[in-house]
Design brief:
The complex is a heterodimer of chains A (about 150) and B (about 270). Helices cover about 20% and strands about 40% of the residues of chain A. With about 150 residues, chain A is α+β, with helices and mostly antiparallel strands. With about 270 residues, chain B is an alpha+beta fold. Chain B has one domain (about 30-265). Chain B has helices at about 1-25, 40-45, 195-200, 210-215, 220, 235-240, 240-250; strands at about 30-35, 45, 55-70, 85-90, 95-100, 110-120, 120, 125-130, 140-150, 155-160, 165-170, 180, 185-195, 230, 255-260, 260-265. In chain B, strands 1, 2, 3, 4, 5, 6, 8, 9, 10, 11, 13, 14, 15 and 16 form a 14-stranded mixed sheet that branches. Chain B starts with a helix and ends with a strand. Mean pLDDT of chain B is about 90; it is low at about 20-25. Classes of the chains: A alpha+beta (about 150), B alpha+beta (about 270). At the A-B interface, strand 9 and helix 2 of A face helix 1, strand 7 and helix 4 of B.
Chain lengths: ~150, ~270
């Protein structure tokens, strides 16, 4: 059995932060740093580079339609520059000869808002929170008036 | 006067709040279909790593607890953890499907569908392969029926597996991105089964990890009598060379995939 893993994903996004980050995915270490480009290094779990593997990149605003396609080089590397106007989770899929893997890369500072909480936007959450607080205040005022 | 205005104002805000909830995408639904796919290996046949040309008449798998999830962060099958999804939808029954059904150009088998699946991206799936309680695969989770041929030899075989397996998988890896349900639309997720893992593939280098781990067909062929082979795991354990039987039980849990993406087998 050949099991593919995306061994290392290196992400440089200079625009926002210049901090190196470390995360763990697919049982291996995935390092990425903030810069303007994303560099993927794809290998089989034997360590062999996925030379010539097909790469498909999906932007967060249209996850069903490929934003970019390409091919890994001899070292299993592929580099691209994400559209800075599309913050969120960028997905990169790498496939070769019946084996494939996928890596999810957060880009931009509004990732939390994009992924959301239960499907509500930030505006909806703020407005609903204000309504609830206002409701408590109003109820308290109502009963305080009755007491008086 | 101001206090009199408070109650209507509070009521208005409450209604507005509920309207916002009603407009949220979490209330919208579409249809999510579940497919099972033995790939062209099963539909069209292939040559094993040891030169046997194999075609399949039936490949029965029995599936239970089939569930799709919306996970955030995306589920990582290499973690070995259970899937924790914000949203999940399941098929209600146990299904025995024939992955070889429909000929060489047949589409993947539709196992079932959920017509009121909340919209969103179903990027993880889990299922169990269980022993069938009736039908042609009764008593087995997997039954492989077919013919193997090699230089004038022909073996009609039936290989039956009564072990049960539970798979947890991430997102489908393939030509298209699957599982994205939009309001009123239809999307699908797929349980993919890689039978080249058992028999190996002559089109792949022999030193490829796929072929190194595969049993091949020769160990099965040695058990045939008069061109017939009908074995289960008990018979395989009794009659196969120990290393071949061990290779078989080691490789069976790796059958389940999502396209080309790997799964965790519990």
């Amino acid at each position: 059995m050949v099991r593919l893993r995306l061994v290392t994903a290196l992400v440089w996004l200079l625009v926002m932060l210049a901090l190196p980050l470390t995360a763990y995915a697919h049982g291996v270490i995935v390092d990425y740093m903030v810069d303007t480009t994303i560099k993927i290094v794809a290998r089989y779990d034997t360590g062999e580079p996925m030379a010539g593997a097909q790469v498909v990149v999906y932007a967060p605003d249209d996850p069903a339609v490929p934003w970019l396609t390409g091919v890994c080089d001899e070292e299993g590397c592929f580099t691209f520059t994400p559209d800075a106007s599309k913050p969120g989770i960028w997905v990169v899929q790498v496939r070769k000869a019946g084996h494939g893997g996928m890596v999810h890369i957060p880009v931009g500072e509004s990732v939390a808002a994009t992924t959301g909480v239960g499907g509500f936007s930030v505006l909806q959450i703020v407005l609903m929170s204000m309504c609830v607080i206002w409701g408590f205040v109003g109820t308290a005022l109502y009963f305080s008036r009755r007491g008086a | 006067m101001r206090k009199r205005m408070l109650l209507p104002l509070i009521s208005l805000l409450f209604v507005a709040s509920m309207s916002l909830v009603g407009c949220a995408p979490s209330g919208a639904t579409g249809t999510l279909q579940f497919h099972a796919n033995g790939e062209d290996f099963v539909r069209q046949g292939f040559v094993s790593k040891d030169g046997w040309s194999i075609t399949f008449d039936h490949v029965y798998v029995t599936l239970a607890d089939v569930t799709a999830y919306q996970t955030d962060p995306p589920y990582d099958p290499h973690s070995g953890a259970d899937i924790k999804g914000k949203v999940k939808v399941s098929l209600p029954k146990t299904y025995t499907v024939d992955l070889a059904e429909g000929g060489e150009k047949a589409p993947p088998i539709l196992v079932g569908e959920v017509k009121s699946a909340p919209v969103g991206h179903y990027n993880a799936i889990s299922w169990r392969m269980v022993k069938a309680s009736s039908g042609p695969a009764n008593g087995y989770s997997l039954v492989i029926v077919g013919t193997a041929e090699k230089v004038g030899q022909r073996i009609d075989f039936s290989i039956k597996v009564d072990e049960e397996y539970e798979y947890s998988c991430g997102e489908f890896v393939g030509d298209v991105r699957k599982g994205i349900v939009q309001q009123g639309g239809t999307a699908d997720v797929e349980m993919t089964f890689h039978f080249d893992h058992i028999f190996g593939d002559a089109d792949t280098p022999l030193d490829d990890e796929l072929n190194v781990g595969a049993v091949g067909f020769e160990p099965f062929a040695r058990l045939a009598r008069d061109g017939k082979l009908n074995v289960d795991l008990v018979a395989c354990r009794a009659k196969m060379a120990a290393k071949d039987y061990q290779a078989l039980v080691d490789i069976l849990p790796t059958l389940g995939h999502v396209g080309e993406g790997h799964c965790h087998c519990h």
